[in-house]
Amino acid sequence: MGRLRAGVHIVPMMGAGDVIEIAIHAERLGYDYCFIADEGFLPDVYVSLGAIARETQHITLGVMTNGYTRHPAVTAAALATVNGLAPGRVVGTMLAGGSMVLGPMGIQRDRPYQVMAETIEAMRQLWSGEPVTWTGDTTALVGAELSLGRQEIPIWIAGRGPLVLGLAGRHADGVILTVKPDLGGALEIVASATGADTPGPKRVYLGRICYTPEMLEAQRPILSYVLMDSPPRALESLGMDADAIALVQAAAQCHDASMVAPLVTDELLRHYQVAGTPAECAAEIAEMADVHGLHAVFVDALSSDLDENISIIENSLPIITGSST
To answer: What's the whole-model pTM score?
Structure first.
């Protein structure tokens, strides 16, 4: 399996200047990856990534985006632009789109598997450097050609549903998973879709490492949205019964996280998240990496306070690498 890599996942609830500073600090600390979430109403990820590319030397830069809020050609060109500034250090991660963004934009998450599959296909065709005319069910390219020429940019997939996980097994260079108790079930789907002669995508776990009670409590409102974006298999792994799953699905239909909030108990929080003392968290991460063959563990940086984010990534790195005492 080799050394477990470490990554920072920035949800830009802060100004672009702070986003850039977090990424620079992450490289100084020794993180391997820095990904930024494309959350629509927050600071633009590609503006931030362009600036980060000029201020860093080796950390791999990525975006967590979707095929609903940006046309695949726009995403392909944006990633190619960052790749020109940081050659060989760019990853594009596709998601099915989340309730926190699509709901306020009035966008229905119709046919998420088809949107994701066709977005990936369109981007890869454009990165060939040749003119492309191609029509899918959800998007199209007509005599389209990327002015930046041929690109070698890995595509990762972050998802929970069986169709999306199967897509990751067949076509992705990496897969990002976020529900801790569902790692085994999700990776089984990925593995079953992976060809016998291929190594399969890199396996990555993404989540906040809650090494204090206060950090665990801060995850409570976020978990409501996670639940609404999760399939029944993942909800079952969290111990939810049929009635609770039905409630979560109803809340997702009307984009109302308040309906789910009563389900987010202290027990559910601890079950969902890596939590405990630093030593306990380090032991849990090591066991997860060993059991599931993880390539990397990413931690969230989503506070509006720069010092808090810096503290989190400083304290989380030794937990991931196993050097925490």
So the answer is: 0.91
